[in-house]
Amino acid sequence: MSRFTQRSGFLALGAAGLSVVAAPADMLVGGPSQAGHQTAAASNAPAAAGGLDRIVGTVGPGFTISVSPRRVQPGTYRLVVRDRSSMHNWHIRGSGVNKQTGIPFQGTRRFTIEVDAGRYRINCDVHPTSMRTSLRVAR
């Protein structure tokens, strides 16, 4: 048996412990994806709102930091950062990009970023030498 609930413009469907949440169309952001910038790794991730391919960053719990995929082609992406620690942040820097979560923020942040060919450094600002990774952008 299913149960439908509508609150603040969101529709939630609960059945046998499964929850699905859908946002109304006017709350979706993004734009058309640039043709030809998808990599094999990026094509496995679902497209974000507006049809942009996703880059997912995660920090915590503990002393972990990551980005997936690690390699993409130049273009516009939806960056989704999952910050799971109040003592760390997730910070990406590179050609025209400087986005970060805060400390003690915990939760999910979403950004739209445009990346050019090159290396983008990702680290925790509190532990920059021990918590770091990178995103490679190449054609």
Secondary-structure topology with pairs:
Elements: E1 3-7, E2 10-15, E3 18-22, H1 40-44, E4 53-59, E5 65-68, E6 71-72, E7 75-83, E8 91-94, E9 97-100, E10 107-115, E11 118-123, E12 132-137
Parallel strand pairs: 4-7, 6-12
Antiparallel strand pairs: 1-2, 2-3, 4-5, 7-10, 8-9, 8-11, 11-12
Summarize the structure in words.
- The chain is mainly beta and 139 residues long.
- It folds into 2 domains: 1-27, no CATH class; 31-137, Immunoglobulin-like.
- 4% of the residues lie in helices and 48% in strands.
- The protein has a 5-stranded mixed sheet, with no helix packed on it.
- A hairpin with a 2-residue loop joins β1 (3-7) and β2 (10-15).
- The longest helix is centred in the N-terminal third of the chain and has 5 residues, at 40-44.
- The model is unreliable at 1-45 (pLDDT under 50).
In short:
With 139 residues, this protein is mainly beta. The protein has one helix at 40-44, and strands spanning 3-7, 10-15, 18-22, 53-59, 65-68, 71-72, 75-83, 91-94, 97-100, 107-115, 118-123, 132-137. 4% of the residues lie in helices and 48% in strands.
